[in-house]
Amino acid sequence: MAKYDVSILAAGRDVSNARLQRVMASLASQGLTIELFCFGNKVDVPAGVVFHTVAKGSRFSRVTNAFVLPWRARGKVLFTPDPEGAIAIWASTFIRKRPWIADVREDYRLLIEDRKWARGAQKLVGIFLAKLALFATSRADVTVVVDDWVRPLEANRRLVVTNAPDVRFLPDVHDPDQIPRAIYIGDVRSSRGLWSMLRTIELAPDWELDVVGKISSEDISKVVAWKEFSPASPRVRFHGTLKPIDSWKFASGAWVGLSLLEDTPAFQRAWPTKIGEYLACGLPVITTDLPRPREVIVSTRAGATVDFTTTELTAGQSAGILNSWAENPDKYRQVRDRAQAQVEFWRSGARYDLIAKAVAELGQPKR
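Given the sequence above, the corresponding structure tokens read:
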């Protein structure tokens, strides 16, 4: 018998995950009762959410957990942000019918090209699972996608809910600190510009950097070595994974937000969420010259774009901009004024309420 309005099955997510937190805040604001299955720290669970800890493990254990959770869940509606979760819930509906929602945050097929582990046989398996997940998500009662172009393009009911900034988790706009400081908030890995950012700070000796997010397993040993040997290490702080309200505290007093993504198939089409959040905090942005970031930064003049051809070129251009701002505060102030003119626009586009409305509708008794 159902005990909650919605069960969130997220075996592959940390409870601090930004979109997960936004979704839960929206559900709670509509008075819906929630149970959550994921891993992470209990203190990061929003008030009123019933938390069931799922052990964090390998990709294989993530899949096995996903297939167990639909049978443990006691919600009227099931909700999953995980591709393997979608496959598991879809399979379970052949035995136990319950309405469910798939939240598709990335193009699963393109994402394979962004992962270092995706080689040889592992890549073939990854492609198969990505295609199966796309098929499963299209069979959900409601399929939420993060952007218009993100697959599946056809579904029973398809909602586009972008990763727009959620003001519930953002600080007020603050003046910049005396010491120039950049921030990066997001997934921390090579393809997300990790090494370009660190090299940038090496070339910009007056600047500090706060990095918020989990370092990928492929990069963590190299980061440890970098921290030990780089002269810039004392000026870079790694804060690990934090829930959004704690992550975005680092925007207060920062001078600039960095988004130095590499040129991958997914990033050629994607809109980096962090750029909208930086602008919603009144921060100028330095971004690699990818199509959608370029369009925003060129039109608003609220930052700068840099080349993504090589790490050294990206870092050299980024450091040149940072150094010029530190040496010429008036020049920086003009860019920041243009960024602050964007705050109201970027704080007004969130539509997470659409997810809460879909859950409430699916949870109503059928007549």
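The chain has 14 helices and 13 strands. Try to locate this feature in the token string yourself.
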